[in-house]
Design brief:
alpha/beta; binds guanosine-5'-monophosphate; about 200 residues; five-stranded parallel sheet; four-stranded mixed sheet; 9 strands
Length: about 200
């Protein structure tokens, strides 16, 4: 059966733990993950080519001009973008692929690829989100304030996602997201080619 992979977009407020959810989906369920490019500085422990492709502004803008990004955006003063080639190749090979991207990027993906599955990971409350950002200790107070302001903008588009999952308990959250993806790939609308193949086979009987 020749079936395209599912394009899965996972977004969520900064600090909600979506990175951890995505890492577990990759390690436990074998999903492919698109590694984004960014102009922000690497955080401690981040490796080029694993968490991100780290590049300077000039390199990033060149790639924009060459149409090298599936989508890209500016987020809290830095560029972030999804390299086009790996995403298109994975989908054509029938592999599911996860993009962990922010809301503007997610909306752009949905526009150019309406079959994409959009999942938003939310915190149980904004207070818990702020506490997590502070305890993570990777950003200073000014950046935390910027990221929370960004969350206010992002909340406006939460209702455009297909699913909202609350990350109150990590194990439950990972399980819920995986079930949503599995269910989505079984939808008739995502299997029209398979349905046609079955009909064609039946005609030959
Ligand atoms: P961080 O700096 O915390 O790693 O990421 C900041 C935000 O950028 C997160 O919401 C993350 O999901 C988003 N992001 C990461 N890569 C991409 C990308 O390729 N495209 C878009 N639109 N957003 C991205």
């Amino acid at each position: 059966m020749n079936k395209k992979g599912t394009l899965i977009v996972i977004s969520g407020f900064s600090g909600v733990g979506k990175g951890t959810v995505v890492k577990r989906l990759v390690s436990e369920y074998g999903y492919n993950l698109s590694v984004s490019a960014t102009t922000r500085a690497p955080r401690e422990g981040e490796v080029n080519g694993r968490e991100y492709y780290f590049m300077d502004k000039g390199e990033f803008e060149n790639l924009i001009d060459y149409g090298g990004f599936f989508e890209w955006t500016q987020y809290v003063e830095n560029y972030y973008g999804t390299p086009r080639k790996y995403v298109e190749q994975s989908l054509n090979e029938g592999k599911d692929i996860i993009l962990e991207i922010e809301v503007m990027g997610a909306m752009s993906v949905k526009q150019q690829y309406p079959e994409a599955l959009l999942i938003f990971i939310a915190a149980p409350s904004i207070k818990s989100l702020r506490d997590r950002l502070v305890s993570r200790g990777t950003e200073n107070e000014a950046t935390i304030v910027k990221r929370l302001k960004k969350a206010t903008e992002e909340a406006c588009d939460m209702d455009k996602y297909d699913y909202i999952v609350i990350n109150d308990n990590l194990d439950v959250c990972v399980e819920e997201v995986n079930s949503i993806i599995r269910g989505y790939s079984c939808r008739c609308a995502n299997n029209l080619q398979f349905i046609q193949e079955i009909k064609d086979e039946l005609k030959e009987i």
